[in-house]
């Protein structure tokens, strides 16, 4: 069996490590001989390699740290070897000349340790128990973060220690200690300056509010804002899209919405919104919501931290999921932990009943999918010379089922078949998690992208029609939705920058988004295939320009049915087509494609000639089953469901208040928060 060749990245890491080790070895030899040219060359190579590590190979730094050879050890060793070389050069009894310089060098390293200790203390004072966005938190004495150089020990030691190292190195050729003295003095001055800057940050009037002061402020904000409904979300960085798809429906609700997060990094992952955002990392802080006016929490996903918030008895909890499909994840047994489960239409209700996972039918509420209210309906066959096909496969999932994604077994065949038709414009939008579990999916995704790029190189496409307009719209949308942070800004500084939004910003963002989408699609070269991986344009925007969707068994096809346009599903499960349709009801109105993509030409023909489309009626029926009726709108039904569950929460609180009032020594009814109507 052939031994696999190491990857280029691994080879580069190994090369850098060897170069740095060789430089230190050469410096040691030069110091002991002593050999001034070798000493200078080895030291310069060592410093240059350190700089390259911090610029391009951060992973190697962590390996050195695990081996107890971090930046401090390496820097001390480098300077020690220079001192040894200077002591061995020239006359004997040179200790009296260089002793003060060695002492100064030691003082510099003591300063480095002191700065690091103060940096940790400053970071702790700036780690608040509550992180906010879209809320005026100026009362917490928020301030810009200290310079990033003072917070990163590796960078700081390289910069602050460079004058001392350079001075010692410059002293070697001519045996001139004055250079070493000047370099060490400059390093000491830099260290003292950094120490002073951090000490000022620890003064009582210069640091942010303490933990109890922040918690008191948070309680006061809750009492003043009086939230009624919230979106609760916890997850990894790549899962933020699950929360972002619910921002617009949440903003369209009556009452006062709030977004509750658990991870600090997630605050910046939430897309542009005017809804107040609070991040409560600690369970003890999260429990303060029990004494607020918050009545309902909406959950778009399950996570380990969901169980923590479910312990709050004064809040009703509902699971809305981040998409519905025939996969087992769409009827997870965890759903029975919520007070209600909100689904799009009758099909999901039936799915829970058949799954027998403990979710009672009385707790299932059909609300539609409010995100889809902006999806345009079918308007007939392609109007121009091109048929726009959206290929949006899902990811490989956690269970290893080969039918989860078509990317591995069928993706390249599907794309080749589509690219072979000169009348097709392909939009390829892979799932953000593609390749995160199965490397084969990631590799297939890369090959698909290269196929599309190669096809574009061969296709003579006209130039963009209005690139200037897109640039203008992009600048305007970025201005409204992007916060400008200094390099190295921490959470406290971001809280300061992302204060309460200006009135009318949400409406301005909606207008700017619509203008951007129109300009984006108009700017594309006619007929050019597109690989779409950025947050913009959204999946629903792609729906509106596509004539046909090809996907897998996922929520994508359920959402696409809002348009009633033709769609196809790749069958990579290994099941016969009849069994495949029976196992996955969302495929009933789809054209089923085999992994070899042999059915693509016929599929394109039905899109271009609607009279041959035999599935139009089936799509309309399936849409009704999956998404519910068109009237009232999904947003209205969503709002009604929130209003009803809020009413149940208020009634529950009233009953609890009555019971508490009747029990001596318990909280009185006056202590139970009265929820706003």
Automatic annotation (TrEMBL):
Keywords: Membrane, Transmembrane, Transmembrane helix. This is Integral membrane protein. It comes from the Bacteria. The chain crosses the membrane at residues 97-122, 179-200.
């Amino acid at each position: 069996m052939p031994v696999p060749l190491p990857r280029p990245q691994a080879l580069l890491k190994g090369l850098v490590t060897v170069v740095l080790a060789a430089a230190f070895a050469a410096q040691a030899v030069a110091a002991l001989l002593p050999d001034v040219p070798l000493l200078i060359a080895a030291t310069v190579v060592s410093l240059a390699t350190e700089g390259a590590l911090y610029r391009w190979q951060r992973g190697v730094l962590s390996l050195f740290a695990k081996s107890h050879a971090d930046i401090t050890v390496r820097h001390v060793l480098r300077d020690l070897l220079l001192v040894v070389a200077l002591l061995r050069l020239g006359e004997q009894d040179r200790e009296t000349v260089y002793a003060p310089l060695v002492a100064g060098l030691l003082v510099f390293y003591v300063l480095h340790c002191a700065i690091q200790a103060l940096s940790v203390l400053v970071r702790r004072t700036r780690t608040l128990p509550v992180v906010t966005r879209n809320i005026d938190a100026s009362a917490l004495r928020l301030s810009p973060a200290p310079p990033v150089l003072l917070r990163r020990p590796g960078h700081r030691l390289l910069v602050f220690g460079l004058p001392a190292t350079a001075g010692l190195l410059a002293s070697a050729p001519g045996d001139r200690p004055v250079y070493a003295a000047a370099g060490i003095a400059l390093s000491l001055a830099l260290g003292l300056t950094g120490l002073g800057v951090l000490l000022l940050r620890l003064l009582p009037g210069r640091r942010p509010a303490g933990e109890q002061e922040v918690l008191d402020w948070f309680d006061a904000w809750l009492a003043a804002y009086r939230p009624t409904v919230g979106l609760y979300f916890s997850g990894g960085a790549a899962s933020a899209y699950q929360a972002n798809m619910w921002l617009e429906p949440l903003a369209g609700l009556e009452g006062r919405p709030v977004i509750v997060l658990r991870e600090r990094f997630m605050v910046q992952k939430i897309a542009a919104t005017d809804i107040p955002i609070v991040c409560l990392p600690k369970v003890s802080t999260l429990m303060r919501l029990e004494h607020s006016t918050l009545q309902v929490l909406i959950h778009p996903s399950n996570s380990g931290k969901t169980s923590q918030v479910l312990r709050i008895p004064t809040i009703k909890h509902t699971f809305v999921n981040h998409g519905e499909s025939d996969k087992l994840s769409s009827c997870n047994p965890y759903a029975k932990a919520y007070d209600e489960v909100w689904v799009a239409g009758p099909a999901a209700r039936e799915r829970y009943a058949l799954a027998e996972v403990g979710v009672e039918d009385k707790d299932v509420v059909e609300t539609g999918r409010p995100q889809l209210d902006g999806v345009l309906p079918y308007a007939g066959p392609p109007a121009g010379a091109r048929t726009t096909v959206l290929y949006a496969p899902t990811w490989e999932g956690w269970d290893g089922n080969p039918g989860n994604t078509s990317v591995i077994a069928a993706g390249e065949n599907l794309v080749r078949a589509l690219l072979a038709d000169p009348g097709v414009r392909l939009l390829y939008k892979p799932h953000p998690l593609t390749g995160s579990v199965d490397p084969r999916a990631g590799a297939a995704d890369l090959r698909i992208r290269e196929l599309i790029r190669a096809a574009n190189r061969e296709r003579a496409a006209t130039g963009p029609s209005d690139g200037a307009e897109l640039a203008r719209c992009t600048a305007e949308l970025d201005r409204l939705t992007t916060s400008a942070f200094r390099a190295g800004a921490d959470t406290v500084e971001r809280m300061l920058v992302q204060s309460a939004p200006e009135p009318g910003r949400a409406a301005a963002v909606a207008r700017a988004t619509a203008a951007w989408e129109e300009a984006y699609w108009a700017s594309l070269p006619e007929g050019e295939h597109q690989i779409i991986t950025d947050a913009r344009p959204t999946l629903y925007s792609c729906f509106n320009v596509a004539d046909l969707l090809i996907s897998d068994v996922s929520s994508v096809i359920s959402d696409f049915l809002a348009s009633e346009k033709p769609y196809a599903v790749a069958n990579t499960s290994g099941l016969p087509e009849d069994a495949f349709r029976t196992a996955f009801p969302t495929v009933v109105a789809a054209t089923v494609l085999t992994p070899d993509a042999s059915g693509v030409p016929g599929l394109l023909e039905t899109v271009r000639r609607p009279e041959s489309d035999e599935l139009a009626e089936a799509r309309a029926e399936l849409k009704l089953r999956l998404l519910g009726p068109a009237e009232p709108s999904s947003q209205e039904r969503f709002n009604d469901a929130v209003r009803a569950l809020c009413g149940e929460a208020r009634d529950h609180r009233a009953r609890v208040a009555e019971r508490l009032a009747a029990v001596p020594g318990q909280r009185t009814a006056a202590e139970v928060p009265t929820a706003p109507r």
